[in-house]
């Protein structure tokens, strides 16, 4: 077994905690330090735009990834509130805030991503971004200070739609959702699935402006006035910006980066510099189910990649990330799930029964992904379909069986839409 004297993990989220546990399972007994810019021990981030936003502010302990005694059990040294500011690969040092330094023999970059900040909407006051626990607390405080306030959401991706759903459950008026792209979820789903996800919001009469950007924010005595690229001005009390994310990697100059700033890795998570690995939202890995090397911002991806990196650190033999990406989101209309990929040019075949929906996503005649709403069992069977050849009629028949509707060969359903 290969060992090292000191493994330093930069980043204190799901990827970091899972990596520690996997390394210890392999019997590696070396010193491990987790360096995090957070002042909190690792906590679960997906609920931030869901349960943590719907409910009144609670103790962050409710969202803790691991119990308080975990660090002692895993023999991990935490360095909290210590953002990485730079590094020196030759001397194996990471420079932290306040002039501190930490030496490493193996370095793992698990810094995740940060919210993409719009120049037209600097955070603070009535303008909020949602990426960490402090963001949730600030938004809750703003809601308390502005009872009955109206909310403008900038961005109609998954985070923007999750925020809208959470706010509606709190009876907070969403005055409008502004999206710079051509439609909601335009960067992540083909037209047919984006339409399916958006329909409950349309039924709830939430105004939507697509192809529209935010031009500026002006503070007023009652709140803010947002100016849009189409010239309109919207008065509201709160603004939540959900315009995507960027990897937290600027401090680690000298590594190979992708176009979005993610650290490019091989199938084991190794970067372009020897002794440095990267995983999670900060990294771009190859995956047999995805057609390009890019970062996969999914909870499950962080877990799966951590297991691969841990095996490599322990010298347990060659291994690569071969599991299918998996994602879920809680939207109006129910939980949606996706296994595999949903390319914009895909052909989709969908069956619906009541609130249940299942879709086979095909690239040519090959199954690229399976999507479901309120049908979690479809994910189990859907994984087995990935990469298989399936005709349009076979895909439609499988969808019919999975939601439990009589199959009528050749009948074109409402959402059987081919992308142009």
From TrEMBL:
Signal peptide: none annotated. The keyword rRNA-binding does not apply. Keywords: FAD, Flavoprotein, Oxidoreductase. Residues 6-306 form the FAD/NAD(P)-binding domain. Its cofactor is FAD. Transmembrane segments: none annotated. SUPFAM superfamilies: FAD/NAD(P)-binding domain, FAD/NAD-linked reductases, dimerisation (C-terminal) domain. InterPro entries: FAD-oxidoreductase/Apoptosis, FAD/NAD-bd_sf, FAD/NAD-binding_dom, FAD/NAD-linked_Rdtase_dimer_sf, Reductase_C. Residues 326-401 form the Reductase C-terminal domain. It holds the Pfam family Reductase_C. It comes from the Bacteria. This is FAD-dependent oxidoreductase. It comes from Tomitella cavernea. The lineage of its organism: Bacteria, Bacillati, Actinomycetota, Actinomycetes, Mycobacteriales.
